[in-house]
Specification:
The protein has an 8-stranded antiparallel beta barrel. It has 182 residues and is mostly beta strands. The chain contains 1 helix and 10 strands, in the order H-E-E-E-E-E-E-E-E-E-E. The N terminus is likely disordered.
Length: 182
């Protein structure tokens, strides 16, 4: 279990680092249906957060506390972790866009991904590099105080590439409490 916690912590930190250090570019070609964008440049940073990601996976209802939200002009990463050894779960939601991230719908075709580690130590991922996976996230609110939305996914077991988990009824409801200093 300690090894799983360590691996998911490393994945979380890597995704946050990658997303928070991505340079802005002016490319406008992407596969997202993000039509009503508000620029995230003014709220860019890494935030402490409260709230939760709730969803159903493999017949189990989850409500995982959100701990960190990373926002940049072209990326958003939400990390939620329940470190209780008896009820461990970790979910990382990541959006990388060639346009400014804002309210709208994103999919794996537009480089969005989700990584889920369950209480049994299984790690699942839906991303453009995982054939057969799917992920759709609909951001309804993105501001300096709140991130809200919904999501669904079919994620593939990360290490073996076999086995899937359906993630349904996903809800993002988090409050950004304070901006972390660099």
């Amino acid at each position: 279990m300690k090894k799983l916690l360590f691996i998911t912590a490393l994945i979380s930190l890597a995704l946050i680092f990658i997303n928070c250090s991505k340079k802005d570019d002016t490319t406008t070609n992407n596969n997202n249906t993000d039509t009503t964008k508000t620029t995230t440049t003014t709220i860019a940073g890494t935030y402490n957060a409260t709230g939760s990601l709730t969803f159903k996976a493999a017949g189990v209802d989850y409500s995982i506390p959100v701990t960190i939200v990373g926002i940049q002009s072209y990326s958003l990463t939400i990390n939620a972790i329940n470190a209780d050894i008896n009820n461990y779960a970790n979910l990382i939601v990541s959006i990388i866009s060639t346009n400014s991230v804002g309210v709208g719908t994103y999919t794996v075709a537009g480089y969005s991904s989700i990584t889920f580690a369950d209480h049994s130590g299984n790690i699942y991922q839906a991303s453009s590099s995982q054939a057969g996976s799917s992920f759709t996230i609909n951001l309804t609110t993105l501001s300096s105080t709140s991130v809200q939305g919904t999501f669904t996914a079919t994620a593939i077991q990360y290490l073996s590439g076999t086995g899937t988990v359906s993630i349904t009824n996903g809800v993002i409801n988090c409050t950004l409490t304070s901006k972390r200093s660099k």
